[in-house]
Amino acid sequence: MRNSDRLPPRELPKRRSGRHRNPLSFDNWFGTPALIMAVPGTAEQAQGADGESIGARMADLVRAYRPEVTIRYGHIEGDRQTLAEALTDLDDGEDRPLSGVVVPLVTAPHPATSAAIDDAMAQTGADVRVTEGLGPHPMLAEVLHLRLAEAGFVRADRMRLISVTARNTTMADGVIVGAVGGEGAVGAAGVTAVLLAARLGLTVLPADLEDEASMEQVVSHLRQGGSVRPVIAPSALGPEFPADRLADLAERFGARPGAALGADSLLGKIAALRYAEVLNSLGVEQPPTAEELPAPVGSRHRPES
């Protein structure tokens, strides 16, 4: 018979096992490789209305997650603030497994960006590794949702799969996730579209912004489903498909243009994650030793004085 007066045994805190205790974590030591962001377009195309570059803003945002890392950025086109300049004079100390990690600031496979990175690496001879782009990733859908809400096209809070009829003529009743980069980019945008549809409770479809046949097919599909206020949400930071070009495309297909992703703290977090993924894959992070692990709380485990 169980004694009801007896206290239950105290459960000691469990140690987290495995190498990846935190997806952003790796062992920090003096000489951590630099993080170089490859910004699509030219320096002029990547400038915002306030004159500040998307690369500079993203560098500040990524620095919040990786303050111990040297962060640079360079543009894949033009002759100012180029990627080749950012890859020049990287520290090749013996305590580094490589000089740097290049993170493309694109949300999907982008042939032009990949080719420019290869050219810059060949030109400089930099010992760097290249990560995947920023997408597909679940946080991209959140950023797209935020941009649509800021423009008044959708509700700011999640609808949680409940379809709600738009109350006015400004809210969207269909969304097109615009991809830039060809078939691979459309596939990545399709993943984001599914996640965004789950957030909004609306029909969300991917389309290739650079292919009018793809746009026509998707817009026709939305119209057949009853959509009269479709919105194009570009899954791009901005320089890949300028705003004026998007506005012309939207007018041609009777849709409204949404804002590009731009620099965002969530995108900065994804960039930091991509950086950590490369270092972890190279074995930079080592499993903690028994001495490095914190001792469990409890009188039996107090360190000897």
Characterize the structure shown.
It contains eight helices and eight strands. Strand 3 (100-104), helix 3 (111-124) and strand 4 (128-130) form a beta-alpha-beta unit. The chain is α/β, with parallel strands linked by helices and 305 residues long. Helix content is 32%, strand content 12%. The radius of gyration is 24 Å and the shape is elongated. Helix 1 packs across helix 8 and helix 4 (138-150) crosses helix 5. The protein has helices at 54-63, 83-86, 111-124, 138-150, 183-200, 212-224, 243-252, 265-281; strands spanning 34-39, 71-75, 100-104, 128-130, 174-179, 204-208, 230-234, 256-257. It has a four-stranded parallel beta sheet, sandwiched between helices. A four-stranded parallel beta sheet has the order 6-5-7-8, sandwiched between helices.
Based on CA atoms alone, the radius of gyration comes out at 24 Å
Q: In terms of structural class, how would the helical and strand content be classed? A: alpha/beta
What is the number of beta strands?
8
Unreliable segments of 5+ consecutive residues: 7-17, 161-166, 285-290, 296-305
> How much of the polypeptide forms β-strand, as a percent range?
5-15%
Helix content: 25-40%
Q: What characterizes the major β-sheet? A: 4 strands, parallel
Order of helices and strands: EHEHEHEHEHEHEHEH
General shape: elongated
User: Order of strands across the widest beta sheet?
Assistant: 2-1-3-4
**pLDDT averaged residue by residue:** 84
Give the oligomeric state of the chains in this entry, treating copies of one chain as homo and distinct chains as hetero.
single chain
Our count of helices gives: 8
